[in-house]
Amino acid sequence: MHNKYVIGVDFGTDSVRALVVNAQTGEAVGTHVHEYARWKRGLYCNPATSQFRQHPLDYLEGLEAAINGALAQTSSDVRQQVIGISVDTTGSTPCAVDETGLPLALRPDFAENPNGMFILWKDHTSNAEAEEINTLAHHWDTDYTKYVGGIYSSEWFWAKILRTLRVDEEVRQHAFSWIEHCDWISAVLTGNTNPLTLRRSRCAAGHKALWHSEFDGLPSDEFLTRLDPLLGGLRNRLFTDTFTADQSMGNLSAEWAEKLNLSTNVVIGVGAFDAHMGAVGAEIEPYAFVRIIGTSTCDILMAPNEEIGHQLIRGICGQVDGSVAPGMLGLEAGQSAFGDLYAWFARLITNPVRQLLGDEAADTLERQLIPHLSAQAATLPVTENDVIALDWINGRRTPDANHTLKAALLGLSLGTNAATVFKALVEATAFGSRSIVDRFLEEGVPIKKVIAIGGVAKKSPFVMQTLADVLNKPIQVARADQACALGAAMCAAVAAGVHPTLEAAQQAMGSGFDAEYQPRPETVATYEKLYQKYLKLGEFVEKDFVMLRHEAS
Ligand SMILES: Nc1ncnc2c1ncn2[C@@H]1O[C@H](COP(=O)(O)OP(=O)(O)O)[C@@H](O)[C@H]1O
Ligand SMILES: O=C(CO)[C@H](O)[C@H](O)COP(=O)(O)O
Known about the structure:
Elements: E1 5-11, E2 15-22, E3 28-35, H1 37-40, E4 53-54, H2 56-72, E5 82-89, E6 94-97, E7 118-119, H3 127-139, H4 157-167, H5 169-174, E8 177-180, H6 181-190, H7 202-208, H8 221-227, E9 248-251, H9 254-260, E10 267-269, E11 272-273, H10 274-281, E12 288-293, E13 297-304, H11 305-308, E14 319-321, E15 328-335, H12 339-357, H13 359-378, E16 388-389, E17 409-410, H14 418-442, E18 449-453, H15 455-459, H16 461-471, E19 475-478, H17 483-495, H18 502-509, E20 513-517, H19 521-552
Parallel strand pairs: 1-5, 5-10, 5-11, 12-18, 18-19
Antiparallel strand pairs: 1-2, 2-3, 4-7, 6-8, 9-10, 12-13, 13-15, 14-15, 16-17, 19-20
The chain binds adenosine-5'-diphosphate (ADP) and ribulose-5-phosphate.
Adenosine-5'-diphosphate is lined by residues 12-14, 294-295, 339-340, 342-343, 370-371, 374, 454-456, 459-460, 463.
């Protein structure tokens, strides 16, 4: 049989990876990961103000290096047999572009301006703007937030655009339109980045830009202008139609065909977010709850439109027809920090070591710290009097987005050590997950099984066992190391015509599951009690602490 290959490209928070996959069998034949150089140096970011920007050059360099690196691992005939490429990225990660679709930071005059760069999903500089969007939407004839859980988040498209237009006169003058990362990269590969004609992702538009067929697309110009006259007219320079990830965006441009040494016959699929393509790669099926567990978590549930479509689910990150697969409602939720909470704790410990003992000692410590703390924490008993933590170190994404919230630790004593705190942080991330699962169930959305993918799911049996105990549900971990990239490859195989549907691509290319964590009855009961304490602490921080803080200021 003449082999056909597809490439899935997954742009994560810290790095981009490409996976070359046999489109008929799903066998992975080459992979390469490229870390973003500028991002790694902390450029254009300020964690203290929650500003996180990524330079488009990090993406372009990464795109070329990841695909060429992955192809370099394959035999020489594979390049000629590549027929499709699809891309997933984080989101909402939008950027201001000029009339040609060029991100402003690629122009010499904006090269160092963070406001002309991609505003990463975890950037929360637009909390105030998100609140304004909520207030206006809730008093408008049409509540534009109704399909995104009733709350618009500062992690999303419009809040980020509004904030940037307000604070940066230069961007205001030169931003013709705005584009999501997943749309831009896919467009770059086709050579058509015209913001008015490129095919925009249904997934990005529906979950983050308030696009819905009931609204004839994006919110009305009247609504946007009332929000701020700075947004007036922008709707016409964005998009009306959106496309699902099984569709084609165009063919590989001559420029990129040369860079990648591939044919211009290669089909480029429509882009989507990492979590949604990850869910495809993890073989999502109706009512399976797929958790992409890494820096953050993104949870995806898929249900037939006719069964859930008429319900409005409170406090989640949206319900979008076709965001995962056509004809199905994709529901998204998640936590703004999961592994990031552990990474914060590791930095807390290693930073003074770096300052006092230098990089070598700190790097050695950093490499070993999380595995070491995990091993120690796994030996600790789980008791009702354990330290309790909140996982809101980067705000709360769901249920009920609130990115002004902060994390907390309760119950410290002189006996508390690094492992006890680490254990509490891991439990906090699991409790945050439990509150999401409970919300789906309360809203009448059943969860048939839980599937996990992502770096933490693969690397940490301790975290996964804790999660299974807290959720009191078995968790299956997908076998694929790069499930998001595999999902993108499945989308590419459908866009390129190898399989008729995503479901067929999953059946042919899926790689199944390798680990399953079962809840341990002896810890489930104690965790139930600790979870109630987590909820109480959360309530205090959200209501009383915020009130006290306002009174004090
Ligand atoms: N052994 C480990 N146990 C728990 N968490 C880990 C471990 N190793 C790395 N992490 C966490 O994994 C996260 C990165 O997840 P990953 O899925 O690889 O990346 P991304 O979220 O950028 O796609 C980091 O936040 C880090 O703290
Ligand atoms: O919300 C998202 C997708 O809808 C983000 O892209 C996602 O949470 C970021 O992923 P990661 O933590 O793996 O970098």
